[in-house]
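// run 5 | inverse folding | seed 20
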C-alpha cells in the first residue's frame, strides 16, 4: 500500500461521495502516477495524478472518455470527476483475454467509429485543441478533409522534429513527405470522420471484469480521442500486437466493412504513431516510419 498523496483523498471524496482508504500505487504509464483506491462503500476507483509539464492532459483525457462513452458501444471506464490535479474513474479488475470478448470489442469499436465526429481533426467536446499522445504534444484542429488533417497535423509536425533533431536525415524524410502529397489518391481517403480512440495500442486495450459482470469484456483506456480515419485506430492495434486481433478485425468488418485494400494501407496509418515514437524513443522508430512510407508509395 502507498501513503496517500496530499489532496488525493479530498478529490476522491468530492468526486465519488465516499471516503478513500489507503491507495495502492499502480505500475505502468510513462506520463502519470496512478493509484487504485478502495472506497468506504465497497467500490474501488482508479486515480491518476496530473503529469508534470503536460498542461491540460487530464482535461483532454476526461473529455475523450466522455465522448467515447456517448454511443454506448465500446466500454469505457466511468469518469467520476477531474480537475487540474486529479482524474478519478471507475476501476476495472484485469482478467485474461478471451476470443468472445475480442469479437464483442470489434463490433463495439465499429459502432463507436460510426458514431462519427464533426470533422477530421476535431477534439472531443470540451477537450483542448492542444492535447497529448503519451508524452508527446498533439494538436487537434478541424480540417476540411482527412488528407489535409493527417498530413498537416499528424505526420508533418513530427517529421520536422525528427529532422531538426538529427534523428532522421532530410533525405530519409522525403518518402514520408511524398506520401503526404498524395494521400487523397488512396481508396478510402474520402471517408467521413470517425470517432477515434486515437492511441489504441494494446496497452490501452484493457481486458477486464467490472463488478456484476458474468463475463470479461474489453475496456478502452487512456484515449487521445479526435475525429479521424477509422483505419488509423485499427492500424494502431496491429502496431504492437493485440490478443485475438484477427477476431477483433473480423467482427469489426462484419459490423462495418472497410474499404477495399485496407490491409495494404496499414503502414500508412502507422506513420503517425511510429513518428511519435521516433520523437520520444529514438531513431529505430523513425527508420520504421520511413520504411512504412516507402511501402505506401508502392500503392500509387
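// decoded
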Amino acid at each position: 500500500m502507498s501513503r496517500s498523496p496530499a489532496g488525493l483523498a479530498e478529490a476522491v471524496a468530492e468526486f465519488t461521495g465516499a471516503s478513500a482508504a489507503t491507495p495502492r500505487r499502480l505500475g505502468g504509464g510513462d506520463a502519470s502516477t496512478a493509484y487504485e483506491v478502495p472506497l468506504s462503500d465497497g467500490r474501488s476507483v482508479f486515480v491518476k495524478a496530473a503529469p508534470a509539464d503536460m498542461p491540460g492532459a487530464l482535461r483532454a483525457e476526461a473529455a475523450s472518455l466522455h465522448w467515447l462513452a456517448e454511443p454506448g458501444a465500446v466500454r469505457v471506464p466511468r469518469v467520476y470527476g477531474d480537475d487540474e490535479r486529479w482524474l478519478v474513474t471507475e476501476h476495472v479488475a484485469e482478467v485474461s483475454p478471451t476470443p468472445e470478448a475480442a469479437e464483442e470489442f470489434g463490433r463495439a469499436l465499429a459502432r463507436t467509429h460510426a458514431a462519427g465526429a464533426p470533422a477530421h481533426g476535431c477534439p472531443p467536446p470540451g477537450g483542448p485543441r492542444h492535447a497529448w499522445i503519451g508524452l508527446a504534444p498533439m494538436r487537434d484542429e478541424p480540417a476540411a478533409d482527412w488528407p489535409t488533417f493527417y498530413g498537416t497535423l499528424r505526420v508533418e509536425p513530427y517529421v520536422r522534429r525528427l529532422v531538426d533533431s538529427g534523428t532522421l536525415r532530410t533525405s530519409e524524410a522525403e518518402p514520408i513527405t511524398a506520401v503526404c502529397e498524395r494521400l487523397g489518391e488512396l481508396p478510402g481517403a474520402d471517408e467521413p470522420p470517425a470517432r477515434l480512440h486515437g492511441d489504441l495500442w494494446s496497452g490501452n486495450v484493457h481486458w477486464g471484469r467490472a463488478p456484476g459482470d458474468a463475463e470479461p469484456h474489453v475496456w478502452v483506456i487512456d484515449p487521445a480521442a479526435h475525429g479521424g480515419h477509422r483505419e488509423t485506430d485499427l492500424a494502431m492495434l496491429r502496431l504492437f500486437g493485440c490478443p485475438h486481433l484477427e477476431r477483433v478485425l473480423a467482427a469489426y468488418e462484419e459490423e462495418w466493412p472497410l474499404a477495399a485494400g485496407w490491409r495494404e494501407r496499414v503502414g500508412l496509418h502507422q506513420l503517425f504513431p511510429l513518428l511519435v515514437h521516433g520523437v520520444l524513443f529514438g531513431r529505430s522508430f523513425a527508420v520504421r516510419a520511413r520504411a512504412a512510407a516507402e511501402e505506401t508509395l508502392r500503392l500509387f
